[in-house]
Every structure is written in structure tokens, then in C-alpha cells.
């Protein structure tokens, strides 16, 4: 606002109330009195707020514009006054004590006439500072078009929006430029219009100075905008690239899945073919090995006794040789023994007297064996036995016999060790022969794929009612053991049902068990009316029974680590909410995986401990066969229903450790199951005895004694025996 206008306004003392308002308005326009402006009555302020500062004021307009944007009332005001005017388009007119607002058409014309190039540029500059080109177009547009209230309203709100986004980049400091512009305007009271002051040279120069700095700013902003636009373009391209890639990958994935689905049966076929050819080679190799070994170790032959034909073992050549060697050594031993006896029978001093008779004065260097031969052949011929000390000779001869006997004994021991080794080999050979025979006789020996995923390979072994095959799971890609439970077709329907119930019960117990030292049960399915299959974790090592058959005594260190692992499995069974008694712990139910990790299997006889069971244990309602060497005395109780608990498994663990350390079971080792029952062997098993050899640590013996505590009440249960240092594994 020009100085003249300020003077004019300040001189109008008779219009004090209004003039103070004007002063405040002016101050607000020159950007000096924001505080004064804020004290304006709401009405006036709102009106001001409804003005839009011309775009050409660029940054200077921001101060005002900000207050417009900040005002929540502005939209209300637009609604209230029906139009929204811009300061550029309007002038403030004092007429007859009232202020009027009129359209500033003349100002526009004048500016267009005199400074049209500048104002257009300014408008453009301000457009950049205002961030949209539309605003520039608006600014130019307003100069030529009549005021359209509705349109103006729309423009204002558009600008408000664009301001809201962009005005942060333009500083409030530009308010001074607003005041400069304002000062370049004057009010002509005659026509009531605000005019731009004439564009004199100084002003133009000043204007040009400002314009050039604005131009610089504009240029840099333009550059920024174009860089940002470039970035935006790139980002858009990247987004579209990524989207394309994503679509391509999704399509590829789908193709792969389709292909995978298509290839699945083919892949399974290739895999099973490979496995089958490997298994066939293994079968062939196994049979060839058996043939070779049976030449050496023996074979099962048919023996006829009258009308009865039975099978009997016929030794192979190696066994025959060993036996012949043993026989020859035995004969030698007996010959020497005979000589020793005859030497002792001869009257004392006989040889000495004979020698004297023959004129021998002292012992000659005649070999004593030769002497014996001479004596035996013809006593009269001992002519040159000069000076023999008969007593000494007898002693020497006896010593020679003894020495020879000792040497024969050593030879014999070596041959016996060899024979034991052969016996073990023979045992393995017999088991392998049996396995091959079972495999040949099995109806599952032709590499079937069960349940569309388990490729049956070779038979691992046959139990009482089941065959266990090594198999490959074509879905999970791992080896498994398929246990095929066959119901005897001759059985009554009742027996079949009972067997199935039993197997399902076993499955239900076993399937919930997940522990490193317990064989996992993966699956169960029916094969036909009389057969079903359970799929177990495959343990490629031998079972403990086979280990003990090969090496009946294990070093204590090895035995202990096996016991500790079994014990950990038992602790797991007893820490579950539903406790389980295994009830059939024996070497055949302890398996080893390829790394030698011990795993307990076969839950066919296991018992679930009911919740309400007392401290003495639960009733043993279904005894099951069990294996008597490994069961505690309470299981043989006949007068009342036995009460059992995890103490049964503790007893079995003690028997297992004893067997591993001493190579025999503590009770009824040489007895059959039937004899154990008949002779009450376990009921009489009150005290455990330890052989003197091999030597075993006292800790091991103490642990075994605790496990084999006769009195059930005094025997610790699984969790209590866990306190024993022998099963708390610490490196010694
Ligand atoms: N998960 C397995 N992994 C590897 N071999 C196994 C597995 N389960 C069983 N076997 C082997 O299969 C053979 C037969 O096992 P099974 O449990 O049927 O026989 P068993 O215990 O001798 O008989 P039963 O259970 O009728 O008393 C055994 O030699 C055993 O070592």
C-alpha cells in the first residue's frame, strides 16, 4: 500500500472506528501486523481470509495465503458471502464512510498495458512457487475474464489445496515483497479504484531486480521439479517393471507347479525304479554271501529219521577244520597226560638206581625225552647214560610234560576263540538265512508301492505277527520301516477284532510320542481286510539283541550310554500328562539309528497309566506275553491282580544293563520262558549276584541293585531312579 494511502487513511480521524480497522487491514497487507490482524473482528478477518492473494505475488503471497489456508472458517465464509474474491481482482474503496470492495479491472488493464511481459513472467514464477502450472493459467485467465463468482470460488478452493501442499517451500520472509507491491498501488478516491502506480524507470528497475532473483529461484525450482518429475517417471517405470516381473514370476511359478504336478508320478516312478534296482542288487548280494558263508560255516540240511523228516544244521568246512583241530589237540593232551601218570607210577628212584646199575655216575646230557623213550623201549640199552641223577630227571620230565600241556592248552584256547567267532558268524548266517526264507515266502516281496507313497524294498525281519520291510517314503523322501500286520485268515472273527483293537491301541499310544530316544510312528493304513501297515522311523543300525549276539559283553562305557538313552526315553514317557509304562523293554526292542543313537520301540504291550491311579500303581488287567527274563516279580503274582507302575520298566532296565555288562541275564538266563514260569524263577529272584569277571564299577553294580530291588514298594520308579548319578550323564 502506498504511503499516500497510509497518509490518507491516517488523516481520516473522523472515521476513527473504521479507520483503525483499515489501518489494521493495511498493516496486515504489508505483512507487519499479523498480531493486529489477529485482533480484527472475526467478520472482517474472515472476509480478508476469503481473498486469494494473486499468484503473481509469489512467495510474498504465502504469508497471507497461509492464514487463508489455516482458517477453518474460510469455506464457511465462501458459503456465507456467496463469492470468493482475490485481492488481485478486488480493490478496497472508501466511499461515504463505508468501505466497498470492487473488481479491479482497471488495474489489470494497466498492468497488462505497461508491464505485460513482467506480470506474465511474475505470474509464471509464482506458479512455480505455488507448485502448479494451473495456477499460472488461472492467474492469466483472471486478467481477461469477467469475474464469475462460482468459478472464483472453485479457483480458490483449488488454490487452497495446492497451497496446502506447496507453501512450505516458500518462506514467510517474502511478505516484504507483498508490501512492496502494495506500496506500488495507489487509490484514486475519485473513481474509487486502486491503481498500480505508473511504471516509472526506477520502479521497473527495482521490479526487474526482484524479477531476476525470482527468475533464478524459478529456474532452480523448475530444475527441481523437472528432476522430481524425472524421478517420478523413473519410479513409475520401475513400478511397472516390477509389476511385469512379478506377473512373469507368478506365471513361471504356476508353470513350474503344473509341471511338478505333471512330473510327480514320473519322478516317483524313476525314484522307485532306482530303489528297486538297488534293492534287487542287495538281495542278490545277500544270497551270494549266504551261499559262500554256508560253505564255510554250515547249512541247514534235511534229516530223515524213519518217516520223520526234520531240519538239522550241518557244519561247513571251516567249522569242520576247527573241530578236527580241537580233536587232535585233545588227543595230544590225553597222550601227554597218560605219560605223566606212568611217570608218577614208577617206583621212586627207579631211574636213578637203573642208571647206577648201568654204571652212570652223574647226569649226562642225554635228552630226557630220549631217556623216556629208551626206558620205555629197553631199559638195558641205556648204556651211555652216564651219572644220571634220577630224582632230578623225573622232575625235569614232569616239567617238560607240563610245559607241553600248557602249550597245547594255549593252542586249544585260540582254536576255541576261533570257533566262538565262527559260532557268532553261524548265528548271523542262520538269522540271515531265515530272513531270506521269510522274504522269499512273503507276499510283499515284489517291491509294491503301498498307499501310493511307500515303496517296499527288502525285508528287515519277521516278528510274531508281523513282517517289517525297509521302505522309501516317496512323498517325504526318507527311508521308513513298514510293519505289516497280518491277521491269520484261520483266526476267528473275534480274535481278528481283538488283534486289530490291540494294534489300534498301540498306534494311538505310539503316534503321540515324539522323542529322540523313541522310534517315531509316522502313519497307519489298511492294506486289505486282513492286513494293515504301520509306518515307523527307520533305524538302520542293528537292534540290541543282534548286537549282544555278536558281542555278548559290552564295555561298561558303551553299556552305560545305551542305558542313559533308554532312561531318557522312559523319563519322557513318565513326564507326559498321560504316563506310559512300556512293559516290554528287552534287547529286541532297543534299536539304533545310523549314528548309534538308541531308540525304544514296540509299544504293543504298553500301558497307559490312568489319572486316578494310587501310589502302588495300576491294576495289570491284560498281562500280554511279555518276556519273562525282563519282567519284575510283581508281574508274576497269581493270587491277586498285580499293581504295576513305571517300576516295571526300572526293573527291565536293570536286567538290560546287567546283560550288557556280564553277557548273561541275572535271572533264568539258561531257562526257557516256560521253565521260568514253572519254576517261579523270577518270584524267587530276591537277590542279584555279580560274577567276578568282567570287572565292573561299583556305581554300575549299585545302580543294578537299585533297579532290581525285589520289593516293589522299595524300588524307585523312573523319575526317582533319575536321581542316580549313573544315569545323569557327565563326562568322567
Ligand atoms: N523301525 C525299525 N527300523 C529298522 N528295523 C526295524 C524297525 N522295527 C523293527 N525292525 C526290525 O524288524 C525285525 C522284526 O521286528 P518286530 O518288531 O516285528 O519283531 P520282534 O520284536 O522280533 O517281534 P514281536 O514284536 O512279534 O515280538 C527286527 O529284526 C527288528 O530289528
TrEMBL record:
One of its GO terms (cellular component) is nucleus. Residues 319-346, 405-439 form a coiled coil. Keywords: ATP-binding, Coiled coil, Kinase, Nucleotide-binding, Serine/threonine-protein kinase, Transferase. Residues 454-727 form the Protein kinase domain. Gene3D superfamilies: Transferase(Phosphotransferase) domain 1 (1.10.510.10). It comes from Salvia splendens. GO terms for biological process: chromosome segregation; intracellular signal transduction. PANTHER family: MIXED LINEAGE PROTEIN KINASE, TOUSLED-LIKE KINASE, ISOFORM G. It comes from the Eukaryota. The keyword ATP-binding applies. This is Protein kinase domain-containing protein. Residues 125-135, 181-196 have a biased composition (Polar residues). Residues 164-179 have a biased composition (Low complexity).
